Fold these 4 entries.
Entry 1:
Amino acid sequence: MAAAASLLSPFPSSSPSPPPPRQSSLTLVRAPSSIRNSISSRLLFPPKRPQSTLKSSPISFLFSNNHCPSIISSSSFQKLIPDKLRSSFFSSVAESLFVLLASLTLSFSIFISDVGPANAFVVTTPRKLQSDELSTIRLFQENTPSVVYITNLAVRQDAFTLDVLEVPQGSGSGFVWDKDGHIVTNYHVIRGASDLRVTLADQSVCEAKVVGFDRDKDVAVLRIDAPKDKLRPIPVGISADLLVGQKVYAIGNPFGLDHTLTTGVISGLRREISSAATGRPIQDVIQTDAAINPGNSGGPLLDSSGSLIGVNTAIYSPSGASSGVGFSIPVDTVSGIVEQLVKFGRVTRPILGIKFAPDQSVEQLGLSGVLVLDAPANGPAGKAGLQPTKRDAYGRLILGDIITSVNGKKVTNGSDLYRILDQCKVGDTVTVEVLRGDHKEKFPVVLEPMPGES
């Protein structure tokens, strides 16, 4: 400590006279004893201050550090006092030198002490997010583990080596339905696949088997063998009480990108689209402006509470990319289909057992309704007595019955007929009104399931 004091003091305290002056612009001389005693008494015995003032004084805080003991003695300051200065001016100069030496001492003590890494002094300001941003982030984090990536593999034979290879022919999204490993997606995502692979949120890949599908509603159910702790079923909501304008969120894997979130609002309700596989209409479809691109098919559409309200299935775009008009199958329709597929492996839907002409052909004839082209004798309509379109002995075309209403509900095209049948069940008896020639007739028809679904 004495060594430190000797380094900080301009002249050693043990020397009776100062050493030869150094090359400096400041020359310090020894003050008279009377002035030394006066200044040293001020330094050693400063005026008393209130306790609160002493605690807040920066000098008292600096010298409270263990690394900074009071090593500056009164004798050292006595040698720093210039001669022939007035008492007030000398007092201010002495105090300034005292603060300077205190700062140097503190800097030296911090330099030689272990203060830890420099980043301990860096304070980062936390990121400020709005409440709606926090809710969106929470929704994405909570529902992402329920969304999966589906790869559709098809068998192809190499033209040169004739080797049989499995190559990806499509991809899409899906979501976990239950803890038994059932995955819900669109039928067009798995159509024509020889093998299916499901990638979970933790990037683990599982082989998938097809449980069943419904071509008419573009819904399919797969099953994977995965540990239950990796399966997080998505919360299922309802779609009957949806309103135009409420916020919706779509999670999927567009263009093969991992777990992408897009937001928007419900821009329309009770829309109708056609199934890509059968052309059969899908009613009560949800329209949204949330971006839905190739790869989003089969992914969930969520409301602001994170509940499933629809399955993303199609977009309206000539280019194939999102144009702000996307469609989702309502969850109320999907739930009933999934329950049947999981339980029976198929969907039992009633049919009339007829083949009908395209709507354009009927319009060209100036008629309104569904023209029956064929009605097999062993089908429901054939058993009831409906007549198909045929040719006479001279090759002239004889139009068959034209269905104009079912159960009193007007039928103007094939979509109307499908819409009415979707509200019926297998075994129901419906009254079919037809136009035969120039008069109308009514026939009771017992609805039957599709062949092979009995």
Entry 2:
Amino acid sequence: MTELRHRGAEAPIQTQSSEDKGSDSELRLEKDGASDGESKGDSGLAEVPAPADDTPEVLNKALSGLSSRWRNWWVRGILTLAMISFFFLIIYLGPIVLMMIVLFVQIKCFQEIITIGYSVYHSYHLPWFRTLSWYFLLCVNYFFYGETVTDCFFTLVQREEPLRILSKYHRFISFALYLTGFCMFVLSLVKKHYRLQFYMFGWTHVTLLIVVTQSHFIIHNLFEGMIWFIVPISCVICNDIMAYMFGFFFGRTPLIKLSPKKTWEGFIGGLFSTIVFGIMLSYVMSGWRYFVCPVEFNNDSNRFQVDCEPSELFQLQDYTLPSFLVSFTGWTTVRLYPFQIHSIALSSFASIMGPFGGFFASGFKRAFKIKDFANTIPGHGGIMDRFDCQYLMATFVNVYIASFIRGPNPSKVIQQLLALRIDQQLHIFNSLKAHLMEKGFLPALEDVMA
């Protein structure tokens, strides 16, 4: 979020009104594209406080004899293993815990980004900035998750009168909440800081777009089956680890200026490692109903259940290998789950396009001369530093499912029909019966009577 540059001499400078003259200082805040070597006075931005090193003291003592390079390697490795272990634990605890973790990560990422904005511009004492930011977060979450609740817990919502009313007028309530925040922002505008306040208004909304929307996609992917949640996230984690390992030991060729430590060796090594990992993980998980069945709410037990007859996507099938692979392997056919083929697309995206989420975050951090979003995880930075690629992956998975996997859902159609009036249900029944009789799938009424 940068302030506007002064126009060049060739651009005419318009006369300002008296109330806008005070914003001259805002125009001098930052020249976009300032290099890392520029001083604070050149960029005009207030310095964002560098996060303190919060590496556990026991690790500092144990690794005190190592160089900083190897010390960082061990710290990252140990904390990575701890996070992977925690990931296994929440998978074991089930879908509800996974959803709660996604919501927690969303809130923490939002807090880290908003804190950076506040740290840069807090000297202007903008009223209500953080209050309005959190209020808009509440409004957007109410809108998205209200839609999800109505869609996934339709029977429960229709059974309870208050929930039914909230569901019926959900979008109107959501709009009214947002409109309240909008009016609060307009009333908070301060003379001499109009431009800056609109910058921060945009800052909040872009943050909401990046964080809340993507976390909503993650929840939707989870309802399709935990495999659609676990495999993409695991592929991103694998790519991050393997790209780091290959880059650490073999990296020589810089990949992109935004991230000087990223190398082509790490990028290519991470690509092939992730594809192999994705195929293997998909093979293991496709055999378990707990992972492949959609997450559904059981209205009788008032609990989530994960049980179904696996679709063809998760049933072993024989595939004929191309001739060049037959001569190389000696196999004519191979037995795979169809989902393993889809996993190649998921792992390829995680390796090729996923890192661009990290590059985007790197550019953001360089713009504000910070190393990490926060210091929540020693050796790794903030939560946003670990999930910058995950959000981009979540959008791809959601689009991929909608485009190539998901078909019409009969149970949801029936739910919608049961919510109609009796005369509407009879009209649909008669229309459907006439259509099926016309197609020859049902005998004519005269034949039945005879």
Entry 3:
Amino acid sequence: MQLSRLFNFLLFISPLAVCRAVASPHKEVYSSGGGECKNPLVRREWRLLPDHEKKEYIDAVKCLQTLPALTSNAVPGAITRFDDFQGVHIRQAEIIHNVGFFQHWHRYLLWFYEKALREECGYSGAQPYWDWTLDSTSESAFINSPIWCPTTGFGGNGPYLNVSGNPFLKIPGRTGGGCVPDGPFSNYTIHLGPRGSIAKKPQCLRRDFAPSLATLRLTKELVRLPHCEKNFDWYDFKSQAGAREDGFFVDQASFHSGPHISVGGEAGHMADVYASPGDPVFYLHHASVDHEWWKWQNVDPETRFKDATGPSIRYDFPFGNHFRGPNITLDFRIGLSELAPAVPLHRVMDTEGDLLCYTYAKEKAVYDPTTKKWVAEELSVEEEDWEACKDPEH
């Protein structure tokens, strides 16, 4: 069922941490990887981090929200380093979604966000991810996910607002829309957005949970389906499903768009295709999107580290019926404006290559009802067969 005419109209009106390292506004942000990856960072699911590591991560994010922006000449509303990353996403949003380099660009962005947390704010860990499938078993499971915990997470939903402020997007079962009232970011001021605005516009962080959508579109079975594809272009198309040139189709939402809308609803920042990085949860969500791609790649690294196909122009086939530009290749270049130079795609294909240096833990999170805690279990050989497919109707 079509519930919105245009994905482009996704809109929302929508004690500072002590930083252990302070960045100068003239700091050189980018440093070349340049060499062999010997000790990759290991990214883990949020709920498997000890509480002190969760606090360290959140403190580092809050540190970025106090350091001065490096992009204010190009982004007038950018005040902090955290704004720098939201600002580059806003400016490039029209070209980085529904294209063949969507995965690559967001991987590159996330790598530099992780570097900023570590090199400018003293964070010692890796970027965590949020496995949405663990919270899709029921509406209660989604609402009560550890990621929303106000003391060891990112705070929860905003209070319900009957008017979302978005006439173009109607999400069934939305439950919030107001300012996040608890957690470490309840008093944080977002400076950019909504949509494509890079002018300074102070606003609170807003969330508008749609838990029923999460239970329908973020199940383990549906998240696994793109992994059945042998070629990257169709894997990528299915992972970006839901958003097309002729509208946004909620009943086709993928593991990329589904969490954006499940968290952002109609009025929350995560639902804004431009300004969604204003919510710190954006980075855990996209780390999980990257985790899925990493799993798909590692089924056949020799082949899939070289598989870069898909349109170079937004909404060209298969995302639309246009054929306006060439397909991407391994030499296609992506960049992060002032934050990082353009690099060819082949440099971000391998997460343990000459530029990037990270991997994902080969483990799963399991809830222990006795201790009432999530614990890590090593994956079996069968569970590491990421390519295995399951028909959700059987």
Entry 4:
Amino acid sequence: MSMEQMFVFSAEPEDGSLPAHPAEPFVWYPGIAIATVYGLVILVGLVGNITLIRTFCTVKSLRNVPNLFMSSLALGDLLLLVTCAPVDASRYLADEWLFGRMGCKLIPFIQFTSVGVSVFTLTALAADRYKAIVKPMDIETSNATVKICIRAGIIWAFSMTLAIPEAIFSDLHTFHIAKTNETFVTCAPYPHNGDLHPKIHSMVSFLVLYIVPLLIITVYYVFIAKSLMSSASNMPVEGNVQVRKQIESRKRLAKTVLVFVGLFAICWLPNHAIYLYRSYHYAQVDTSLLHFVSSVCARLLAFANSCVNPFALYLLSRGFRKQFDRQLCCGRVPRWATRAQSGGCNNTHVTSLKGGSHSLPSCNL
């Protein structure tokens, strides 16, 4: 999130823990190594998310409500990887902010927007699974694609609105290191005076972009779990095969969304925790090696969240896996994928999660 602008590692004091000049081996070589890891994360994320979006856009059978939301999620991840990750990596190769005052306002805005799109889209996905499983009769079938696109647009607009304060208040500020009596200028959401603003900023960000959405998702999944257990217990032993397949399909979709939510929660929690620590110790600049390493790992883990979703879906869905391989290999399914997926996807006439009756691949998601 934008508050991670405070993660400055390039101007630490020369006290034996983090030398200040990247030309010195202790900083220069670790900086290259860290930037290389960033590059790998960006590359993997670009390949995965672009292929996911292409798959959902070109394969008609995969254009359903969850997948449209996942495409929006992938678009937000791409935005984060293309804009914010390279800027974050540059901090380990240069001892000053390289992107000027305009970049200091734009990058935090983009980052906050992207994280907002991710967590609010996951919340919308949980709500969609709740309607499909607990209240299937409430699902509207007319103009479903248009309505989902409108909802996704609203999520983007809402996230951008929440990010406006980041662009307004973020600026280049001068910080002072008491141990060495050095000063440095970096991009930060507020000047280095007073301790109220950083505490408010960190707590509001933690609540809005983490705690509250995850609590809402948890409530949805409690009702989903109850509904699925009730359906399983009330179904006769010789139950309708078509109904059983529908329930299994809903379980798979709910499981997929839950995995996405779990990955988000795990990947972003360390980043939030470190920022909260920084905001409550704002008067001091922690130059310890432990803090440096934990901060780097937290940042990389947060950015890694933007590249894991396509591959998590790849492992969870045979239908998506086949189409993903086809898109990745320019329209041809590789031989190893064909052998792994022997039997393919048989068209099965089932009642879709939207309420209509369609012929869908039985292995789709």
